[in-house]
Amino acid sequence: MSTAAIIPAAGLGLRLGGETPKAFREVGGESLLVHAVRGLKAATAADLSCFVVAVPPGTEEAVGKELEPYAGDARLLVVPGGAERADSVRTALDMVPVDGIDCILVHDAARAFVPVEVIERVVAAVRGGAQAVVPVVPVTDTIKRVAPTGEVVDTPDRSSLVAVQTPQGFDPAVLRRAHAAGVVGATDDAMLCERLGVTVMTVEGSPDAFKVTRPQDLLLAEALLAERRLA
Questions:
Q1: pLDDT single digits (tens) 215-226
Q2: Given 3-state DSSP classes, what are the helix, strand and coil percentages for the chain, each rounded to the nearest 5?
């Protein structure tokens, strides 16, 4: 049995600025998408046999040529993404082989520098029997809930809060059922599973798996990559 990875990379990433879609912004001379694919493939214990990447319509051929050297012996499929992240994941999910896959990872290209050990922890948890798994890190800021009019409603206990990262891992049948349910408003695939009553398990994430969202995140990514190249 092996793992398939879905990477939704069709978003524009407006908060990052510039005209280039976020997944194709470069760090160290290579796109975030290249870094993401290479990082997933480096997790040898995950046994990745298939990548399905959803990209802006019309860019499939060019992206396929760019990513092919980094997919190694894994099958690489590049498909047109949808208007929303969930649409892209759903389209990609339809291309994942039904047979021979015991874990599906859904990974954001914007979290291009997730460490190998995080990826392997997620896959190991799914293969250990968990139906849905997310990597998490503790929340360090004080979090407050606010009303639509702006006033603070309450302050949740920070010790019970975590920030969720990717890749998120799933039993293939559960992920397909979650996407077929037609849930609206979910912000990640684990939330779709939660809505079905599926227990979502957590594993330790990493500060290095931060999401490139704003221009200053690109500077942080450049620094992290430079540090890794010196190691």
A1: 999 999 999 999
A2: 40, 25, 40
